[in-house]
Amino acid sequence: MVYYITTLLVYAGVDAIACLGLSQQFGVGGVTNFGFIIFQAAGAYVAGALSLPSDHVDGGFQSYIFGWHLPFPIPWIGATVVGGLLAIPFALIVGKRLRGDFAAIGLLVTAVMFNLLVTNYVPLFNGAAGLSLVPSPLQGSFNPQSTGYQWGYGIIAILVAFATYLFVTRITESPYGRSLRAMRDNDTVADSLGKNVRSLRTSSLIIGGAIAGLSGGVLVGFINLWDPQAWGYAETVVLFAAVIIGGLGNHRGAMLGAVLVPVAFEEATRYIPPVSGNPNLIPALQWVAIGLLILVFLWFRPQGILPERRRKLATRFASEPGTEPGALQSPPSDFAAPVTSPSSVGVIETEVENETIGAGAADGDADTAPATTDVILECRDLVREFDGVRAVDGVSMAFKRGCLTGIIGPNGAGKSTVLAMLAGTLPSTSGEILFRGEDVTRLPAFRRARMGLVRTFQLASEFKRLTVLENLLAAIPDQQGDTFLGALRGRRRWGAQERELIDSAQAMLEQFGLLGLADLYAGDLSGGQRRLVEIMRALMAQPEVLLLDEPMAGVHPRLAHDIGMQLVRLCQEGTTIVMVEHELSIMDEFCDPVYVLAEGRVLAQGAMAALRAKEEVVEAYLVG
Amino acid sequence: MSVFIASIGFGLVTAAVLALASVGFTLQFAVTNVLNLAYGGVMIVAAYAAYALNERGVNIWISAPAAVLIGAVLSVLLNNLIYTPFGRRGTTPIAMVIVALGMTLILEFGTQALAGPTNVSYIMSQGATVKLGSIELTVVQLVIIGLSIVVMILVHGLIRYTRLGKAMRATAANRNLARNCGIRTDRVITVTWLISGALCGLAGLTFAMNSGTFGATSTDIFLVLILAAVFLGGPGQPYGAMLGALVIGLATEVSASIIVSDYKDVAAFVILLAMLTIRPTGLLGARA
What we know:
A: Rossmann fold; six-stranded mixed sheet; about 55% helix; B: ABC transporter involved in vitamin B12 uptake, BtuC; globular
């Protein structure tokens, strides 16, 4: 009986560790690694083979690599390290831009094949028979069969699980964790805001792999054997089921799921007496039950028992008196720049919103632009083909610093495609792009974003399961807690800066009149509100050049006008804006110069008033 | 050398079974955009359905329609009761993979709970051995190859020359557009799953015949071969699946004769991973 309880305790610890690894990787990072069980298996094999003596010692009845007879805790450390290292080749598969379910299948099949290879290649880890007689940790000093040792092992397994919980929580609740969650919600947008998605994915895989490896190491020290049957692909399904049922993105949910699914269904039922005549009935029904559990939960409660918790940063910081009370009282029209910005966007003007700027015609705006009219962004002979169709066919444009340039054209003219190529979210077929005189044609979007070239998207692209405030915070560059090491150093490292960033984000929200929504999930807002969030988020990224793809679509005309005013102000402060828009009246009011695209080519350019007079422009619009 | 040529014979038999399975799988993906990972589970349930009759003394060839029927009915139920409702809820592709894996567990281990864990075999004669040079195949193996060729020709005729085939291609290309053009897409999808399910049942039957003994989880590795064949030809491409089945069938058996038979499925795995990372739309698919 004691043995039964301690065994369950160890399994609870081990499964909780594994589920926390998966929760970090899948729930927070959105990386779907259906080969997860391989990492636990690798940890168990390595810990076993490191702690076993040379394979000649036991009369050579089993063969394996290593056999170094290393003392505790080196095998556990080895298991963790190998789990992490093994993740690196996996990053190649997951790092590709592949349909999620295709990548999942690639990894699932990889797990099946790893199992096949380890089963058939005996010299590695003794093939199908697996490793046995794996020494328990410290078995020279204690008797592993004693009740005390059993209890001790169970408690240590639980403690390791708790330490793992603290570790993953520290990462998840940091700005780095926020970047991971942003990537999970929309990787293209995260990329366009300067997040190195490939590096974030790789680190998710490595962290999850190391944790899974550790769980294998802890397990093998207790059960003293490990064979290919212990890690079939179905075990991965069990862990995924546990994390989903517990609550995706919630580490406590992951631990709860670990106790409910693998422990309660697989281990606790292991000692139900077999049904006479059909000894395999109970195990088979267990699997059926797990399958049903997955379906029922995904249908009735896809968010899990303990759903991901909403992080109410605005409420939390508002309730603390004495923290920068002035920040919220700044004038409504003030674009407060985040404090960390290396190149703060010029002077912050406290000028009250002035209707006369907008009242001026297009030529009036040109006069108010700063004197520096050098070209900051340029593209030459830009081409993009889709399946042989030339969507963009040799477009050359130059954008001057401090100007609000418009791009118009009929549907299918290639406006959004040009914008995407300028930002780097879509590779160009040929042609070159120069930003601040540097050739950026081959640079990925996140590098261009870090240089100050930031875009927004035509379709809703908010990070759905981040709050509005978090959406804004995620875009801010150079955060102290936005690296793995920074996150590990904890709040002491980044807490003070985080508070300042929250203040500046709240100032931005105040200005757009959305402060009341700061703590709502961005995915729950109305269409117009989401567009505002996107514009604010792009502004938080401190762009030198801001590329806007139909920012006014779905926004109330009155609000659209206000946004236009803000954009004009930004340009006066030195930001360059390129705006794709359908609404000609907006172009009339705010943009100069304006490029007209039709059928992938530049049809005309100049001031809007002049363009209206040109016959071919009017025709392209009416005919197109 | 003769071992090599003999392996081509076995490769053709594997390819014949694989073609039945992969064409069914790829048709399901074409019209509903779901990777039905429970396909192997349906195959094995169908194989057991024929076994249930066979065990009671019915000749296996007379029991065969039971496998086809069960495969067809089960596939339609799977789509209409599981995948379509989940899809309508906006379940993500990843969650759909998990749903499919959950269904696999239910089908395979449900079968195991009913039929027991030990492997079974059909009571049947493999027939005389026919020699064609170094290639030696049994009559049953030749029948499987012949059956597969006939079915492939029928599938070709269905897709190319019938109204239903045209409707299926239209639905696969763009379901909303097809519906707006007056095609009853729901019915087309159901019929497609019925046909592909029949192929799945036939594949399960021939798989069980060809492998001699089989158990509830025997198709787990075979599913890897199916996926490799489907992705080689391009998911959703029936002709691609036929080509893929031929290549994968030969590649596994021939590599088994050259290297070690323990690792024969690794060839399929390598091809699958290469296709997924380099060209996920397949050899016959559109460019990415």
